[in-house]
Amino acid sequence: MSGSTAQRRLGLLLFAVFGGIALLLASAGIYGVLAGLVQERTREIGVRVAIGAGPSAIIALVLRQAGQLTAAGLVIGGVAAVATTRYLRSLLFGVAPSDPVAAISAAIVITAVALAACVIPARRALRVDAMTALRAE
Fold first, then answer.
1. Which of 118, 127, 123 is CA-nearest to residue 29?
2. Cα dihedral value 126, 131, 135, 137, nearest 10
3. How many alpha carbons fall within 13 Å on the CB side of residue 123?
4. Which has the closest alpha carbon to 23: 64, 85, 68, 70?
5. Distance CA 50, CA 107 (A)
6. Helix/strand/coil for 51
7. pLDDT, tens digit (0-9, with 9 covering 90-100), for 28-86
8. d(Cα 130, Cα 125) in Å, to the nearest integer?
9. Fewer beta carbons below 10 Å: N end or C end of the chain?
10. Long-range pairs for 104-112 at CB < 8 Å and ≥24 separation?
11. pTM for the predicted model, two decimal places
12. SS3 for 106?
């Protein structure tokens, strides 16, 4: 029994490993883009803090950017997933290629990873000193 399912188990293990690596790369990519955007907008954040923006407004700014990036990625990924389901049909067991529960679960996991990836840039945005940001070239 074990020998007859070895090839399928290896395929599934490889899919799981590559999926984990893809999730890690997506998290690092979102973090990098958001960190760059926060760095780019340091002056703007400094001005917002100087005119009275509270921490919740600054966090909302960073989360809004993260949400837009995540939504765009989910749409592009969803279209790509729908386009490639027929090629993966032979590798799936007990799950339809267009299973909505699996698709929604994947979207929830990716959204959670994206939110976790924007924690550090959001905290960095909260530490922007208005006077230093306005003085900087």
1. 118
2. 0
3. 7
4. 70
5. 37
6. coil
7. 888 888 888 888 888 888 888 888 888 899 888 888 888 898 899 899 988 998 888 87
8. 11
9. C
10. 107/74, 107/78, 109/23, 110/23, 110/26, 110/70, 110/73, 110/74, 110/77, 111/70, 111/74
11. 0.70
12. helix
Residues 6+ apart with CB under 8 A from 113: 23, 26, 27, 30
Alpha helix (H) residue ranges in the chain: 6-40, 42-50, 55-88, 100-117, 119-126, 130-135
**Which token pair is 58?**
């600054």
Q: Check residue 94 and report its DSSP letter.
A: S
Q: Please identify which residue in the block is written with the tokens 């990924």.
A: 77
Rounded CA separation 88/12 (Å): 12
CA atoms within 13 Å, Cβ hemisphere of 34? 30
Longest dimension (CA), the chain: 71
The residue type of 10 is: L
- Whether 125 and 61 have beta carbons less than 8 Å apart is answered as yes
